[in-house]
Structures are given as C-alpha cells and as structure tokens.
Design goal:
This protein is of the alpha+beta class. It contains 6 helices and 13 strands. A hairpin with a 6-residue loop joins β9 and β10. This is DUF1989 domain-containing protein.
Length: 287
C-alpha cells in the first residue's frame, strides 16, 4: 500500500470482507508427482560428464541430456545464480517462472519442478536435492531459491539510475546464449526469460508488498540439484549482486564463481519416462 492511501473510506462490512480466509489458488493434489525416491536412488554410482565454472559477473550455457542430473554448487563465497532453462531442441519452450510459482509457491526446493511455457507446460527439471532446505522461511518471511524475482537487467537499471551497466544477469545470459547457439546477440536476447534465483534469499514486505532481499545464507559447498526431464540447454549467471545483500547492477558487491556439474546415472531411474507435451487440444473454443 502506498503511503498516501487509502483514498476511499472502508465500507461498513470491511472487516468481514477482509476476514474471509483464503484458499490455495492451484490445489496440486492432482499434479503428476515425480517419483523422488527413484530419482534420488538413480544417483548411486553416477558419473560426472561435464563441469563448467561460471565466472563472477558472467554466465555460461551448458547442456543436460534427459535423464541426467545437474548440480549448481557455491564455490569461493556466497553467490546468487540466475538460471534459465530451454528445451535443447526448441528454444521457444522455456522455463515458465510465473506458472511454476503458481503451482509450487514463491520458493522452490526438493520435489518441486521447473515447468515449461505454453503450449507444452511440462516439467523441464525436477529438484532432487537442496542443501539449504533447512532454511525454510525466516522471521522476515524470506526464503531461498525464488521464482518471484525476474533477473537483474540493464533496462531497469537505466530506468532507476540512468546508468549503463553491462554485466546484469540479463546481459550475461544474453551473451552466453549467443555464444552457445551462434544466434546474433539481439536474437539471443529474446530467448532470455525470468529465472529461478538459485541461492537468492527473498520475499515480500507484508506492509508494502515490495520485493525484499537479504544476504544469501549460501556457503561454499552448498548446492541445488536437478534431474533433467527432457534434453535441456541451460544458462547460469553469477549475479553481479554477489550474495545480493545490498545492490546489483554494479561492480560494488563481492562476487564469486558458481560450479555447474552434469552427472549421468548408471541406468535411468526406475519407472521414469520423459514427460510428453501438455495434452490440451489447443482449439481454444474455436470449433
Ligand atoms: Zn542478477
């Protein structure tokens, strides 16, 4: 609520209206559930097939074959990462932060899935381990690994400060995707999308609704681990905000690299099949 509001008097039954209890927007009991135990069991004896170090204030792209695992690990010091995921064969199918938020809530952890955009709307990846799951929600209502932020970007920075800063996560991901695909820079930019804020500690103010962040509780060795449900192209930016305790969109914060590792299981998880595209018929009432 803005400081100079409200402009209108409350009606007589205002208290009763405000006292109506909310319900969960998307009851997820009918959501297809991953067999988490089978996915986690498939890690036994896995073999590392790739490792990429993302430099501070920069991004790298990487591929994860369907049925393989991806780990993002903090190295060197507290650092936030901005993650994009695409279908490796079709960049138009990409991570849908907003719908993932609607289904799983503001922050993701073990068992939650990263859903893809319309019209596919299927799990791109399932989170199989999170060394920060002990954090839960703190006294300020903040938690880690959010899908409420977007990504730091040079346009908002210019809007707010008038400055030109070129190592925001949006630009880092744009350069990395252009390098990985050969697409021209501005074409690659159109595929960069709202992220999973790996290790970032965020929430909303109960008073003003504003987006809040604080120093990430991540420490070297902490990790977030995913199972790739389809062939993935990923992009990870080591945010110029570092642990995101004060500001991003500058070279002020202490920044550290992030390690990406890809692991191949000895055999696919028991019973696992790569998810099909969403089965809505797409007629949209036109017939
Ligand atoms: Zn960032």
């Amino acid at each position: 609520m803005k400081p100079d509001t409200p402009h209108h008097p409350a009606p007589a039954d205002a208290a009763a209206r405000k006292a109506v209890p909310p319900v969960v927007c998307y009851p997820v009991e009918s959501l297809p559930q991953p067999d988490l135990a089978a996915l986690q069991a498939a890690r036994a004896g896995w073999r590392k097939t790739a490792e990429v170090l993302v430099p501070p204030r920069d991004a790298r792209c990487f591929t994860v074959p369907a049925g393989h695992f991806l780990r993002i690990t903090s190295v060197g010091g507290p650092q936030v990462g901005d993650l994009n995921l695409w279908n490796a064969a079709d960049l138009s199918e990409r991570f849908y932060s907003g719908k993932t938020r609607a289904l799983h809530g503001t922050h993701l952890s073990t068992g939650d899935r990263m859903w893809s955009s319309f019209p596919t709307l299927r799990p791109l990846a399932t989170i199989t381990d999170d060394s920060l799951d002990w954090y839960g929600f703190d006294a300020f209502g903040l938690s880690v690994h959010d899908v409420i932020g977007t990504r730091c970007d040079p346009y908002t920075n210019t809007l707010l400060t008038g400055g030109q800063y070129h190592h925001c996560c949006h630009s880092n991901l744009t350069r990395a995707l252009a390098a990985a695909t050969g697409l021209p820079l501005h074409q690659a930019e159109t595929h960069v999308h709202d992220v999973l804020n790996v290790f970032m500690c965020t929430g909303f103010s109960r008073q003003t609704g504003q987006y809040l962040m604080k120093a990430s509780p991540v420490r070297p060795g902490d990790y977030l681990e995913f199972f790739a449900e389809i062939d993935l192209l990923g992009g990870l930016s080591a945010c110029p905000g570092g642990d995101c305790s004060s500001e991003h969109s500058s070279d002020t914060a202490a920044c550290h690299p992030l390690r990406i590792e890809v692991f191949a299981p000895q055999s696919p998880p028991a019973g696992w099949v790569s998810p099909q595209r969403n089965s809505y018929d797409r007629s949209h009432g036109s017939r």
